[in-house]
Amino acid sequence: MRKWILLSLSLFIILMACTQKEKQPALAEGEIFFNVDSTLIQTPFSVPEYGFQVSPPITWLATSPNMLKQIKESLESVVQPKGDFQINPLQFFLHPDHPSVLVVSYITDQNVEADIPALQERYITSIRTSLALYNLQENQYTKTGIPIIQYLLQKDGNIIFKILFEDSKNQLIQLDYVVPQSVFPEESKAIESSIGTISIQ
Q: If one looks up domain 2-200 in CATH, what number appears?
């Protein structure tokens, strides 16, 4: 059943991308156009110290500073690979009616001062190893010239999209969209719209 769900999701993503490419014949090879519905997203989220922005789904609410601090202190990440990496949350966006969440983070290496390509390569290897049991599916593409690595997996009844990209200040940024399988159909367009707003500043 789990394999069937992931296969269906993968086919949906592939068909969506193919359809969009037909509508956007000028796209470069490897470029994916996302259909962004402005009614499904909120104002962009950004942090001055980091060179990117993304608009979360419209009903997913940012945590307060106090709650953010508490979550950071007690967080045991849902999809954190094993190893020497540190996932540093910048903000959590929570759906008020069900346990969907967008986690915006940046990735650092606890032991090695490496450049972004080396850090990303080691982190990707860690992801592939630690999450292989969850039928991990990997896709690499560009969005408005931004190289993006996207992972899709199902874990503990959740559909998870993990997005990795480098911002303009040489930080490895990670977005985790975690959505209960039962509500994914109604949230999928908002997630697509949100991913489609990723930009480098």
A: 3.40.1000.10
